[in-house]
Amino acid sequence: MTADPRALAELLEESQDLQADALRPTHEALDELVETAHAEREDDAAGNQAFHETHTRALSSSLSGAALLGAAGGAVLVGALASAAAASSSSDVQILQTAASIENLAVSTYKTALTLPYIGGSSANPVVTKFAQVTMGQHLQHADAFNAAVRSLGGKSQTKPDPAFVPVVKKAVAGLGSATPAQGALGVVALALELENIAAETYVKDTALATRQTNKELLASIMGIEAQHVATLLAVQALLMAGAPQLISLAPGTAAMLPAAAGSVGFPNAFYKTNSAAPAGQGAVK
Description:
The protein is mostly helical.
């Protein structure tokens, strides 16, 4: 399977431009968030209580709809949220630590995927390989940005992945060992899509729940990048499920062979759902 090198280079350049554009306001929001949090620390006690009560209610209403989590995963979520109040003295720090934990998990997952022959090997689709490589790098930048703000607030960097989702990822990766290349590619895309969607939904929910404008700007800027990843993966997944991996290509003329649904499959919802959003204290440093 081949791809047009020039078209691929242009696509990657555009992706990195979008990443740079999105991170610019993200860093501005992070800086402002740090300043605001320092100025308001004496209000943290009351703010933390309201923060945890809000997220407890949000968890209770959405846990049953989380596609990725079974009963055991739900129990981990509840336990993580229950102990989150002691994890940090600042709800802002907890939000950022959890965001970093989600990004860490994404980095780890893409890194593992790239060791698989049908994702990162010589026989893999070059567009899928490059997408995985570039996306992994973007998630790493997101984690670095979140942790920089955590340290500025006096908190500890979150270098570990989100604890509630780690067992699910391990189970999914273990199941890929005996898969055929076609099955394996679909499995990896499905897993990556689930994680990207969790990230996007988490940032959507926390954008709405955040009381500070700086929080809203930060979460919304990163959420847009995750939504872009979701749209790309949905298109790739659709082509794989249709048995047309050859259309995952940037070669001249490929666009004319795509089905009509290719223009809309990446955007199934007018508004993002938040059923799979992680509670904001779930990935806080314990």
